[in-house]
Amino acid sequence: MRKFSALVVFLMSLIFVIQSCKKDESETELDNQLYDEIKSSTGYLFYQDGDTLSGVSPSPHGSFRLRFNTTAQNVLDSIHELPAGSTFPTGSILVKEVYKNNALNLLVVMKKNPSGTDAASGWQWAEFNPDGSVFYSTSKKGDACVSCHTSSPNRDLTKTFDLH
Q1: By three-state DSSP, how is residue 96 classified?
Q2: Domain ranges, ordered by start, for the chain
Q3: Of the candidates 57, 149, 39, which has an alpha carbon nearest to the alpha carbon of residue 95?
Q4: For 161, which DSSP code?
Q5: What is the pTM of this model?
């Protein structure tokens, strides 16, 4: 009986580990898919002609350039801003290219995907190192992002238009 109990505990532990690994692989896959979508700047429109903008307190991002994919561009006004009261359509991607000492330091990403299991407030949130490795995973569901991005004024959780 003792051996049987030990075997059951071992098998349950093994199943738990396997399930945990599957979840990690799935989360990594989602991050990798998002990185693949943003790794090229082709087809993106840069805000304010691609000028590097200074980080405004309390932003944790520092100096950056902001770019929008084609889906997001379709709702921007003539000065490439989201009009107050508007929202980005599903599939919109915003990428902050954060610079430190004039070198790319981080890619901060928001993707509008309200039906995504890893979405928070309709957006997937992630950050990547320049080499594509994950700095902040979509699996965290924007837990470090949403509270600041929901502050007023709110243009579909984007802050840049009101700060620059």
Answers
A1: strand
A2: 37-163
A3: 39
A4: H
A5: 0.78
